[in-house]
Amino acid sequence: MLIRNKAMITVIAAAVILASSTLALTLNQGQEPKEQFPLAPDFTLRNLDGERITLSSLRGKVVLVNFWATWCGPCRREIPDLNRIFDTYRDRGVVILGVSWDELRVEQIKTFVTNYRVAYPILYGTQSELSQVGRAYAWQGYLPTTYLIDRKGYVRDVYIGARSEQFFLKGIEPLL
Questions:
Q1: Who wins on pLDDT, 31 or 104?
Q2: Helical (H) or strand (E) element with 9
Q3: Total domain count for the chain?
Q4: How confident is the prediction for the chain on average, in pLDDT?
Q5: What backbone torsions phi and psi does residue 116 show, to the nearest 5 degrees?
Q6: CA–CA separation, 54 and 64 (whole Å)
Q7: DSSP state of 98
Q8: DSSP H helices in 41-156
Q9: pLDDT at residue 40 is higher than 80
Q10: Chain mean position to CA 167
Q11: Sign of CA dihedral 82, 83, 85, 91
């Protein structure tokens, strides 16, 4: 049984590495012109006040779309870094959208956001809406996953797993 578990962990690790490599090659990180980057699929989800937010309405801004969940430990560790980025860079045109993959009532998500002092907008949707967003982004189900979208709406990078403020800023600052 231990050998089978080790084999399964090895297979999962290889899949994560392969997915990360494929995404990096797909995005042609750091290359111009921007047309070589994929246009971010548009979506509309609700914020915690019930307002519908559409990604394309944020063109002209640098956007981090962060797929996360309340039960995800690495997602929780990432919140203070995302808060600092949001607080420091929102006046310079940076928007962070946290897309909750929880199957919770909105009141439960609001309680989590209050308790963890999440400063940036959190979006949620029905299971069907979230599935459509996930498919459009070719999301592999890893949390957190963050998409860096430039001012023209192109996906410039994809980060699988928790990242630090400094790591995110290496991608954000050149786009400002």
A1: 104
A2: helix 2-27
A3: 1
A4: 86
A5: -95, 0
A6: 14
A7: E
A8: 73-89, 106-115, 127-136
A9: yes
A10: 14
A11: positive
In angstroms, the CA 142 to CA 171 distance is: 20
Q: What is the pLDDT of residue 36?
A: 83
Angle at 33 between CA 88 and CA 174, to 5 degrees: 20
Domain interval for residue 106:
2-175
39 secondary structure, DSSP code: B
Query: Token digits for 81?
Result: 């870094």
Angle (nearest 5°) at CA 84 between 155 and 158 = 20
Q: Distance from first CA to last CA of the chain, Å, rounded?
A: 51
pTM of the model: 0.80
Task: Kindly report the CATH number assigned to the domain that includes residue 34.
Answer: 3.40.30.10
- pLDDT tens readout for residues 117-127: 999 999 999 99
Q: In what order do the strands lie in the sheet with 122-124?
A: 52-54, 44-47, 122-124, 94-100, 62-68, 145-149, 155-160
